Amino acid sequence: MDASAFSAQDHAAMRLAIEASRAALAAGDNPFGATLASAEGAVLFTARNNQNTTRDCTGHAEMVLVREASAALGPDVLRGATVFASGEPCAMCAGAMFWAGIARVVYAASQDDIAQALGGPQLATPCAQLLAQARPPVVVEHGLLREEAAAALRGA
Question: Please, which contacts does 115-119 make with residues 24 or more away whose CB atoms are closer than 8 Å?
Fold first, then answer.
């Protein structure tokens, strides 16, 4: 998508997700972060990947965000909200966001960016393709601050 299609609030929320990805890397985890924003654009919560530090293979940033935001703020806050993810969500995370009632997902770095930076195993079903099947629908947008997020993946 064209960067001009995103609001200043979108940019700010994604920058928080990218900052969280850098914090995850600094802590010894995979470099991914996610931010939850209300339907009105207010930032509600930010989380980072914690797979290595918690020894939990499901500790992807979006999963941590759904769990922790629901516990801290209540599950209703997730319904209709937006998740800003520093990297394209995998199928597990896309499913968790759908079941939580997230209405919009915006990601920065693509699966290709992630593969180039990190290698390793991939569950390569595109997030937009998976969530296109969702009822109710989930809007998926991508490319917001992609280069910043890709640099964070590379540790730059």
Answer: 117/150, 117/153, 117/154, 118/30, 118/31, 118/153
Alpha-carbon Rg for the chain, nearest whole angstrom, is 14
**Rounded distance, CA 148 to CA 85, Å?**
12
**Paired strand residues for 82:** 37, 104
Among 128, 90, 98, CA closest to 1: 128
SS3 111: helix
Distance CA 120, CA 36 (A): 27
Residues recognised as catalytic: 62
pLDDT in tens, 14-30: 999 999 999 999 999 99
Q: Is 147 helix (H, G, I), strand (E, B) or coil?
A: helix
Q: What is the pTM of this model?
A: 0.96
Q: Residue 76 corresponds to which tokens in the numbers above?
A: 């209703």
Give residue 145's Cα distance to chain centre.
13
